[in-house]
Amino acid sequence: MVEPLLIFALGLNYLPQDRVSVFRSRLEHDPDPVHKAKLMKDLGDAEFQEIQNDLVAGNGSEAIRVLEKYKAETQSCVNDLDAKKIDAENHPNGFKQLQVSIRQSLRRLDDILPALTADEQKPFLEIRKELDRLDRHLIRELFPRQPGVESSAPKPKN
Prior knowledge:
Number of helices: 6
Largest sheet: none
Shape: globular
Structural class: mainly alpha
Number of strands: 0
Order of helices and strands: HHHHHH
Strand content: under 5%
Radius of gyration: 18 Å
């Protein structure tokens, strides 16, 4: 019998479900929103591996369930960062990593969608739309002074 610690030491790639569980547990128990945002890259990687596996196995409903969970985790991270009232432009730590993670997830979704029928795409497209909204929100937080970008941040005085 292989000890669980040995499996962990060999790498979590062999057990994608366990990888997801480990990252979700870390996300749920970490009180720091910046740390949570940084964890989303690894969690997103593991969850999208699980989504791909579910789709290959013909289990689209399970893939959607995992994607819904990812969206909820991402929304929670954005809400936690917003609640801290951090100036993301001057202190991008967490915001930047979360935005990059969401952008990677949008690309992964764009790669998945062509292989699905129009009916199968609908729930994926709805989640993609929400992830895109979160991505745009983070970009506005990180770059509030960009031309054409509306922001709640005060304008600099000249």
